[in-house]
Amino acid sequence: MTHFIDGDWNLHKRILNFCVISNHKRNSTGKRLESCLLDWDIKKILTITADNASSKTKAIDYLKSKMGHWGNGSLLLEGKYMHIRCCAYIVNLIVRDGLKKLEKSILCIRNAVKYVRSSPKRLEDFKSCVKKEQIECKGLVVLDVPTRWNSTYMMLEAALKFEKAFWRMGEDDECPYISWFGEDESDLEDRVFYDVTLKMSVTLHPASHTKFHDLIAMEEEIEDLLMEEEEILSETQTSKVLKDMALNMKMKFKKYWGDLDKLNQILMVALVLDPQYKLGNLEFILKSRFENPEDAVKKKNEIKEILNKLYEEYAMPPPPPLTQSSSYCYSDTTTMNTSSSLSRRGKK
C-alpha cells in the first residue's frame, strides 16, 4: 500500500500489489519490494512502514542497497530514515506488556461475551436480563479480536455497561452460563492508548504530523500512572497490579521510543511541517524532555537541518541560464518574425 499527495494537495491511498512471499528471508521480501517499485516505475521512496521484525529490517536494508545504484536521487537522505517502525504495532506491544497481570480477568470477560454471542437463544436471554436490570444503553456486548488490543478495549468498555445483566444471568440456576467458563487467551487498559491506536491507524487522512505528540501523550500517561500509585500510602493489591502494569509499559516504551536519537527523525520533521506547530512547538516539547536547554536547541537544529536537506531533495532544479548563443538565436528569431509581419502589412 502506498500514500501520496497529488498536485492539488489531496491525499491518495493505493494498494500496489498483493503477492505471496515464499519465506521471510532477507532477500525474498527485499526482492519483492524491489520488483514492485520497478513494475510501478517508482523511483523515489521517503519511508517504508513495517513492523519491528528483524526480517523486515533486513529487507529494507536490501532495498536500500539496490536503490543506491539506481541514481537520480532515488535514495532520499541516503535512505537513513527509510524504515519507519509501525507505531500502532508498537503501541500494541506496550499495552500487551502492561496487561499481562490482567490476563485471567480479561479471559473471564471474553468468555462471558462469547457465551452471550454464541447462539440466538442466549442472546435473547441476555437481552431479557438487560431489560430486567433497566439498563438504558444502545448496542450490546461485542467480542474482541485478541491480537488487536483496541478491540479488547471496546469489548471491556461495552461489558462494563452490562455488568448487572451478567450478574443476573449468573444467578439463574437453570442457565448454563456459569458452567460455560474455561478457555485460554488474553488483553487491555487506558483510554489514551486506545485513542492513539485509532489515530495511528487511519488511512484516509494524514496522521504523521501528530505521531510525535501521541508518543509524548503516552509517555506522560505512563508516568502519571506510576506517580499516582507511588503516592498511595497503603499499597493495595489493585495499586500493586497497576504499578506493575505501568512499569512494564514504561520499559517497553523506552525500548522503542525512549531515546530521541534512536527515534526515526522524520516523525519530528512531520511535526514541524504542520503549520499549527512548526519549529517553535518542537523546541517547547524538547525543552520539557531535556534537562539542559542547550540539548533541546541542538536537537531542534538537527531537525531543521534534515528538513533543509529534504527540501533540497524534492526542490525542482532551476532552469539552465541562457547562454550568449541561445540569446542571440532568440533575438534573431524575434527580428525575423517582426520583419515578416511588417512585410505582410506592406503587401496589404
UniProtKB/TrEMBL annotation:
Pfam families: hAT-like_RNase-H. Residues 323-348 have a biased composition (Polar residues). Keywords: DNA-binding. It comes from the Eukaryota. Residues 203-314 form the hAT-like transposase RNase-H fold domain. Residues 317-348 are annotated as: Disordered. This is Zinc finger BED domain-containing protein RICESLEEPER 2-like.
